[in-house]
Design a protein that fits this description.
Elements (H helix, E strand, L loop, with lengths): L1 E3 L2 E4 L5 E6 L4 H13 L1 E7 L5 H12 L3 E5 L4 E7 L11 E2 L4 H12 L4 E5 L2 H4 L4 H9 L3 E5 L2 E7 L7 E3 L5 H11 L5 E5 L7 H5 L8 E3 L2 E5 L8 E3 L4 H13 L3 E9 L6 H8 L3 E8 L5 E7 L7 E2 L1 H4 L6 H10 L3 E4 L12 H11 L3 E5 L2 E5 L8 E3 L4 H12 L5 E4 L11 H10 L2
Parallel strand pairs: 3-16, 4-15, 7-8, 11-12, 19-20, 23-24
Antiparallel strand pairs: 1-2, 2-24, 4-6, 5-6, 8-10, 9-10, 12-14, 13-14, 16-18, 17-18, 20-22, 21-22
Helix pairs in contact: 1-2, 1-3, 2-3, 3-6, 5-6, 8-11, 8-13, 11-12, 11-13, 12-13
């Protein structure tokens, strides 16, 4: 693979091998940093995510008064804070960059702080809807203004009242924002989801000394809790692992082992899909508290198409682009429905992955809420676009490894948003003896 300006050239891989440890999970890193900024004392995290999105969260927390120290080797991060009351107004609008996680979860924190704040981001983030998080925070008493339902978001924080809120669409980020606001509210706050989303916040709050009540699909906290510091080594990101797993399944003579990776059941539904497609995948859990952590092994497999229905989409939302690549490499029909949320991510991911795979020779039928891929056709190299979306760039790079001829990916550098080491890891795997 050779970088050339804004493009990256990727040649087909004859084999792919290796044992890998990955940068810390992005979802956990966001939450650990924010909870540490609400605690009184210093929290320390090893293997903190190197993703640009998590860097945006750290920068915003510093602007609000938390003291953040980053030690490059081992990516150790320490955050010293004095509790919610020690946070202060930022001198400038808070820049969440490309990170919807940063913007949505910090909105929950800032809703309860007695000062004005503005949350903003890059052009991509400014195109993404935020009313789903603004509306429940307003119901708690926060004064929040959006820009036609999108960022910038202006928050005039102050006293909040706990609510019992039912989400129409499952969202771990919205759930987290409400719970973070609930920590600062009078009374009890609960959130109920139609189906389960990522449960990292519920798992981590007790680690910071905050009691959590979980009943079925509902989770609740009492206002007035005082978080205490917590130290943790962050396990590897399974959403990043998904790209290596699919690469191992579709490249000839491939076998990979990913160690120290997060195996939270709400994060590894993609492995179930790939097994259903015929993927030779094994996992092992080595520890389980506060999050299950272990290893994943995968090797070259003959895949077959499958259906992904609307009820499964919430647990697969980040992995659907790379699962589409597996679908293009499989025999038979691969179908996704109920995934309209992909239209309002960092890019319109349905259109973006459909365009890229079509350019490489796949038969892709695009629908408003998903796509249908007729597999069994050998992909060929082509010039494709990332649309500035990290998951599209990485998914097309994996497709290129199994294609005939070279592929050029425009804007592939956006992979740094979630996995800065991605192309180096691919180089290592392709070049391994």
């Amino acid at each position: 693979m050779v970088a050339s300006g804004a493009w990256r050239r990727i040649a087909p891989a004859r084999r792919l091998r290796g044992r890998f440890g990955l940068p810390g999970d992005k979802s956990l890193s966001h939450r650990l940093a924010i909870l540490a900024a609400l605690a009184e004392g210093t929290s320390r995290f090893g293997n903190f995510s190197t993703a640009g999105d998590c860097g945006s969260t750290l920068t915003c927390l510093e602007a609000l008064g938390a003291r953040v120290t980053v030690d490059g080797p081992g990516r150790a991060v320490s955050i010293a804070a004095g509790g919610p009351g020690a946070l202060h107004a930022a001198a400038h609008p808070l820049d969440a960059g490309n990170s919807g996680s940063t913007l949505r979860m910090l909105a929950g924190v800032l809703a309860g702080r007695p000062f004005p704040s503005v949350l903003d981001g890059d052009a991509s983030l400014r195109a993404r809807p935020v009313e789903r998080v603004a509306a429940p925070l307003r119901a708690m008493g926060a004064r929040i203004a959006t820009t036609d339902g999108r960022p910038p978001v202006t928050i005039d924080g102050g006293p909040l009242t706990g609510i019992d809120h039912t989400l129409a669409i499952p969202s771990a980020q919205v759930k987290t924002a409400i719970l973070l606001a609930g920590l600062q509210a009078d009374g009890r706050t609960s959130v109920t989801e139609p189906t389960a989303s990522r449960d990292h916040t519920e798992r981590l709050l007790p680690c910071f000394g905050v009691p959590v009540r979980r009943t079925g699909l509902s989770v609740g906290v009492e206002g007035g809790a005082r978080p205490t510091p917590f130290d943790m080594a962050v396990p590897g990101d399974p959403s990043s692992a998904a790209f290596l797993v699919v690469a191992a399944l579709i490249v000839p003579d491939a076998r990979v082992r990913i160690e120290g990776v997060l195996l939270n059941p709400t994060r590894i539904a993609f492995l179930d899909v790939l097994r259903r497609m015929g993927g030779a995948i094994r996992i092992g859990i080595e520890r389980g508290d506060p999050e299950p952590v272990g290893w994943i092994e995968a090797e070259t497999s003959s895949l077959r198409g499958t259906d992904i229905n609307a009820s499964a989409v919430a647990s697969l939302i980040d992995e659907l682009p790379i699962l589409a690549v597996a679908g293009a490499a499989a025999d038979g029909t691969f179908r996704v429905v109920g995934a309209q949320e992909l239209r309002v991510k960092e890019s319109d991911r349905i259109a973006a992955i459909a365009e890229g795979l079509r350019a490489m020779g796949a038969l892709v039928e695009e629908h408003a809420d998903g796509l249908v891929i007729e597999g069994g056709r050998r992909l060929h190299g082509a010039a494709v676009r990332s649309w500035g979306d990290h998951r599209i760039a990485m998914a097309l790079a994996v497709a290129a490894l199994a294609a005939e001829g070279e592929t050029l990916i425009e804007g592939a550098g956006c992979a740094s948003v979630s996995f800065p080491e991605f192309f180096a890891v691919l180089d290592q795997a392709v070049g391994a003896d």
